[in-house]
Amino acid sequence: MLIWRCKKCGWIGRDSDLGLHYGNDELYCPRCKEVDNISEVGFSSCFNSQEVEKLWQFFGEIPIDDEDAILEEFLGFSEGTDRIEIWHWFDENYPEGVAALMNGGRHGN
After folding, report:
1. Contacts (Cβ under 8 Å, ≥6 apart) of 20
2. Is the confidence at residue 48, as pLDDT, over 50?
3. pLDDT score at 109
4. What's the predicted TM-score (pTM) here?
5. 11: phi > 0 → left, psi -120 to 50 → alpha, else beta; which?
6. CB of 45 within 8 A of CB of 5?
7. CA separation (Å) from 30 to 12, 19, 26, 100?
8. Strand pairing of 19-21 and 26-28?
9. pLDDT > 70: what percent of the chain?
């Protein structure tokens, strides 16, 4: 799953959430319709707490095998990455830690 951000309005979402202008095959932000300010983000990008909570929701959609490896790319973590490694990333990037995310986060997801 690829994650995208609009530099104009701050929207963050999955590749499947982006709009597409079929005539010229351009992706656009579903919130502000901007084309030129959409960029893919990865685990080395900076995120605020609310964005990390959204990313946690997206991570919940990633299939995981019986050995706790993700079955598709997520946020720049390659297929086959152990889920615990990604949990550590969330723990380091969310002020209350991954345990708080597991309990709904601070914004009551």
Report:
1. 26, 27, 28
2. yes
3. 45
4. 0.85
5. beta
6. yes
7. 10, 5, 12, 29
8. antiparallel
9. 94
Q: Is the dihedral of CA 42, 44, 48, 52 positive or negative?
A: positive
Asked if 87 and 71 touch (Cβ cutoff 8 Å), the reply is no
22: DSSP letter:
T
Q: Return the amino acid letter for 45.
A: S
The reported pLDDT for the residue numbered 20 is 84
The neighbouring-strand residues paired with 38 are 6
Please, what is the Cα angle at 15 between 12 and 18, to 5 degrees?
70
Query: For the segment 51-68, what is each residue's pLDDT rounded down to a tens digit?
Result: 999 999 999 999 999 999
